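ok so heres the complex, two chains, lmk if somethin looks off
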Amino acid sequence: MKKIIILLTLILSAFSLYAQDALSLMKTARQRTKIDGMEAISTLVIRDAKGRTRTRKTAMVSRSYPNEVEKRLIRFVEPADVKGMSMLIVDNEFEDDDMWIYIPASRQTRRIVSSEKSKSFMGSEFSNADMAAPNLNDFSYTLLGEEKINSEACWKIEIRPISEEKEDEYGYIRKITWINKKDNMMIKSEYYDFDNELEKVLYIKQYDLMDKKRLSFVVIEMTIENLQSGRSSDMTMDKVLHNPDVPERYFTPSYMEQP
Amino acid sequence: MTFEKFIVKFRLPIIIVFSLITLLLTFSLTQLEIEPNLNNLMPADMPSRVQTNYIDSTFGSNNLVIVILETPDILEPKTLKRVKELTHAFQRQSGIERVISLFTLKNIHYEDGAMIVNPAIGRMPRSKESTEALRKDLKNNTLINGTAISDDFTKAAILLTPQKDFDEIELLEHIQNILDDIPGEETVFIGGLPVVNATIMNDITKDVMYLLPIGLLLMIFMLFISFKQLRGILLPLGVVVMSIIVSFALMPILGWKITIVSILMPVILIAVANNYSIHIISRYNELLAINPTWTKKELTIGAIKKLKYPILATGLTTIVGILGLLVHIIVHARQLGVLTSIGIFWAILLSLLFVPAVLTYLPKKSKKKSPSNKLKKKRLLDHFLPRLSNVIVKHPKKIVFLFILLSLILSLGIFNLKIDGNMVNFFKKDHNIQRSSKLINDNFGGSQILSIMFEGDIKDPELLARMESYEMELLKNENVGQITSIVTALKEISKGLYPPEDPLYDRIPPSRDAIAQYLELYYMSGDPDDFEQMIDFTNEKAQIIVRINKADGYIIKSVVSQIEEMTRNDHEVTMLGGQALITSDMNLAIVNGQIKSLIFAIISIMIILMLVFRSIPAGIFAVLPLLLAEAILFGLMGYAGIRLDAATALLSSVMIGVGVDYTIHFLWRYRDEYKENHDAKESIRKALVGSGKGIIFNAFSVMMGFAALVFSSFIPIQYFGFLVVISIVVCLVAALILIPAMCIVFKPRFLEPKELL
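and the predicted structre for the whole thing:
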């Protein structure tokens, strides 16, 4: 009996220790994906349950600012009928994101105001939140332990939105994330829907070191599978370039309208 | 060895074999299942079902559960709060794939150069001004007004897409639990096809549970009145129960399920299957009264000898009439035809073998006379029948003429006869299903959905313009409530991109590229699943969803016909589908099935009677009352506004099968009489007085059996009971008045005595 109590105490204290660790692990992981500036050409393949695909090729520039603000400009390259369509996204840490869209067919730029992070990224299974650095304060974290993913030692962390509002905003009630010990990079995440059933699994298949000095990585290839709808999407960086000096003028609505 | 001797010799094996077979089949009853999907009434390879399945698999099912909250103003904070909480609870409920409500829909609008994509209700309105501003926004949003709210803001709807293959009854329990958990002052209605299906399933069970005992009790009552002896009750009851067991037991064995039309089966069997044994027992009693010295075996043999042919003839015609259902397109009508025929066949076997075998064992006991009641009744009919025959003999031509005239007048109502394939009308006007269906029809576009499938390059502006023109044209039809398509969605996007005064506001974009870019924008503004209700993944298919806001099958059919006509020469419209198309096909199927089974039954009965009486005119002669009864039946339905639907469509076959018996009985007796005295008028008198009573009792016991249907939960089944009683009255009157009059007027040669049978 005594042994059990001791064991329990040990486990409980380990948990509380883990709880503290979980947040700092997430913070580090976030730092690892934070890139001061980059340019990339990427391909997004959206696949439905029957295996049919829709492909979108985009050019992207992004820049991070010290106040946790990240700006991204995405421009469609293919297919031809949407070529030139552009999105400017300003990711704010504490407020709603800002988004502008340029529609070349009618030469219109419109700001889009929306608060939903769970919304699909360009009709894919990725959400807008998957594409940006997470707002750490929206969640609570629990370190569940250690586990190997593809023979890689990982931390296993449970992430829960802090309130029902946030659950609705992000579209899930919990997420299990594996962060590898080697680079502190998230390599797998499972999303659980409101019935607490596994809905989506995200895999980071490949990432490269981008900035040696700041020790930050860029995801080269990731896949997300929706187990409930049978859909999946792949995002691949065809070309990436580290560029801390992306000009500020790129990130203005008027720049989008230039050919 | 004669048939009678065979029974006497093998009486014990006969009793054992019949009891054993019935007992064995009883075990199969535990496997009985109820058919949950009403569309399975139609053959699975029917184009409307194949197409609907194809469209459903492309765009997802349109068969939603619709929860409606009714209150003076839905923008009251407490109502909004309830809608919000319900939406959340439904979203978290397993079995529900998608929830659409005020709190999931988006409001896209243009404001100071910005396209605002927000939940229809983001923050609860706090002031009167913000409430009114919200009201204006919601009213103008075509994706919300008429979908999640009624135009007058007294009703809010929550639309639930059930998960594929999820048990509908279980789902409705979940929904009801959630509604109970989140109470409020609003009146709640639940509607939609899954609810109709589940309710029908529930009510079918209820009906079978109630109607069977009610029918049996009515029968016992009837038997008690006519026999006042235990065997007179128990033997026919045994025959009926055993044939009901056999018919139901065959369902699981053949892989069939109980449906709304199966409710008719036990009632038909109760009404029909007891006749044969009643005849045998009463003949046994009759013989006993005349020959008190005969042994049990002699009495039994005597009864069977006289009755085996009439029983076979009437039984066979009844079976053939009911087998007319085999040519019906409604799957379960065919099954009903097969099962009921087998049940009746079993009842004939039981009556000719089992009942006599049992009678040879039962002690010879003369019936206790109860003079008061019985005699009075006898006197009544004994006065009536001779009087009737006098009238017939005196004015045969007038009677034939009057009869035909009356039938013609009554049959004119046929032009008023409406066809109705919509299952919602199975329910009474004040039933929840009817009320919610009406609410949906009046406020939320309509409950019957038709999909128009387009295949081609959906981004082609010319195609989209054509889609829009169809929508405009259809909206002019007052029976069309709401129309949604990718056109509606693109126009909604344009409202976010341009201010109202701009020419591109609320328009389909002018070029292919612009359409592609609007679509891309649309993809960014919701869940991937949501888009594909209107346009498929590769943008090669799109659907227009047309909601019809009337519940009447014939109106649904007319809208479907309009759409078929309109899109006939459009090569990009590849098919139509949806519940409305199935309902419309159901309408056609009911009419075709009716005509086919009518022709089949009439012709086969005519042939049988021609064989039985060995004369061609005999068949025509005996079938005439049936045709008149049929004309009067449809005419009366037209006058009374009773619609021909999935259940009442089965009426003719049943009526023909049962109704012809009386004519056969009469003609049989008439021929026997004519053989003796060679005088038509005298034979009519004797035949009427002699067989009239038996025929009238027989008809009343059948009517009594069908009367149980009046207690059904379903309107068409109630009407069925009512109409079958009327038809039997017509057949009875025809057999006892028209046929005798015709015998005098036409003097048919087949009734001249030759050596027959």
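quick notes: The interface with chain A takes residues 88, 91-94, 110, 113-119, 122, 459, 496-498, 504, 509, 511-514, 516-518, 520-521, 523-529, 531, 537-538 of chain B (CB under 8 Å). thats all i got rn
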